[in-house]
């Protein structure tokens, strides 16, 4: 059992929580997995080959942190899982698509993902590429389905779909990937690294939270607080990943988990060093938690997730452990 008060992180808090994060993550992950499984089973008869590759990208997943953030943000404002799960599943489909494409030889050229061969190693580059395309497209089909449309006002539904599209497009995830690719051969400063991280990693995390809160009917001021939390958390996620990659570099490469091009990536530690990267991570987690203060005890899941992100990186957990949570 992992309780947040047992995580010896150097992050200040006004009071110690006994919130059981492990139990929360486990139950929400199970809900997301069941919903994804149902959706895949309903669709895969249409084209067995492509859905097999798409399913391979979805299962087994990591800790499903992005869809869990959607659920947690929605629950904060009384949202029910029947309403939130389609958006949570869509977010995870988009995340899975991004990982399939990220692993391709043209990008990071990874052989392994979560200890198993990457999609293009199993199905070939062409089908893996199409599987990623399929997951991205199906995510928008799911969010715009008639079942979801019956649960929300049309204007709100259009806004939610737009929010997700904006987050994963040229000014968000895809744009961040493009900048990251270009930065491999450039000298970058700290501002450029943060600019890339906010888009490549942070945009989808922010959208996951924003969609959950808005779908549940949160007031605009409350949505803004959740969005600010997401901005800090998204950057903290990537910096934590950078720290663990840097500190576990030899082990990681020995296990084949680091792509051949990944050593050239623009990262926080490579620009400012491990110590300053950890200081920045600590500050980001504190700022994320601060945004939740007005919500009191209702925000415990979101608070615990932010603190867990900080604790794992600051205390030198293995790279694969955090990547299982993040990816």
Could you provide a short overview of the structure?
It is built from 16 helices and two strands.
Your description of this structure?
The protein has 327 residues and is mainly alpha-helical. 70% of the residues lie in helices and 1% in strands. The chain has helices spanning 21-43, 48-58, 65-76, 81-103, 119-123, 125-143, 146-149, 154-168, 173-183, 190-215, 220-247, 249-254, 268-272, 274-291, 300-314, 319-326, and strands spanning 112-113, 116-117. Strands 1-2 form a two-stranded antiparallel sheet. Strand 1 (112-113) and strand 2 form a beta hairpin. The longest helix is centred in the C-terminal third of the chain and has 28 residues, at 220-247. The radius of gyration is 19 Å and the shape is globular.
Summarize the topology.
Elements: H1 21-43, H2 48-58, H3 65-76, H4 81-103, E1 112-113, E2 116-117, H5 119-123, H6 125-143, H7 146-149, H8 154-168, H9 173-183, H10 190-215, H11 220-247, H12 249-254, H13 268-272, H14 274-291, H15 300-314, H16 319-326
Antiparallel strand pairs: 1-2
Helix pairs in contact: 1-3, 1-4, 2-6, 3-4, 3-10, 4-6, 4-10, 8-10, 9-10, 10-11, 11-14, 11-15, 11-16, 14-15
């Amino acid at each position: 059992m992992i309780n947040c008060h047992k995580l010896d992180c150097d992050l200040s808090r006004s009071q110690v929580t006994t919130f059981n994060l492990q139990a929360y993550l486990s139950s929400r992950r199970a809900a997301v997995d069941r919903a994804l499984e149902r959706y895949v089973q309903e669709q895969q008869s249409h084209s067995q080959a492509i859905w097999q590759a798409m399913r391979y990208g979805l299962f087994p997943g990591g800790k499903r942190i992005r869809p869990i953030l959607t659920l947690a943000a929605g629950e904060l404002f009384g949202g029910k899982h029947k309403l939130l799960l389609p958006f949570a599943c869509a977010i995870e489909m988009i995340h899975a698509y991004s990982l399939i494409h990220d692993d391709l030889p043209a990008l990071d050229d990874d052989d392994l993902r979560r200890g198993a061969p990457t999609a293009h190693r199993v199905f070939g580059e062409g089908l893996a590429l199409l599987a990623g395309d399929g997951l991205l497209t199906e995510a928008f089909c799911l969010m715009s389905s008639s079942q979801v449309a019956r649960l929300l006002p049309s204007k709100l539904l259009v806004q939610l779909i737009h929010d997700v599209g904006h987050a994963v497009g040229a000014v968000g995830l895809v744009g961040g990937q493009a900048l990251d690719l270009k930065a491999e051969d450039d000298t970058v400063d700290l501002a450029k690294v943060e600019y890339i991280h906010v888009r490549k990693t942070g945009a989808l995390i922010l959208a996951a939270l924003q969609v959950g809160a808005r779908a549940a009917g949160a007031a605009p001021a409350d949505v803004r607080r959740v969005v600010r939390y997401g901005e800090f958390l998204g950057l903290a996620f990537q910096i934590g990943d950078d720290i663990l990659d840097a500190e576990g570099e030899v082990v990681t490469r020995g296990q084949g988990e680091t792509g051949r091009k990944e050593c050239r990536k623009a990262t926080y530690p490579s620009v400012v060093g491990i110590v300053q990267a950890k200081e920045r991570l600590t500050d980001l987690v504190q700022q994320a938690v601060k945004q939740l203060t007005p919500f009191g005890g209702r925000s415990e899941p979101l608070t615990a997730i932010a603190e867990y992100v900080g604790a794992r990186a600051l205390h030198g957990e293995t790279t694969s452990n955090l990547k299982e949570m993040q990816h």
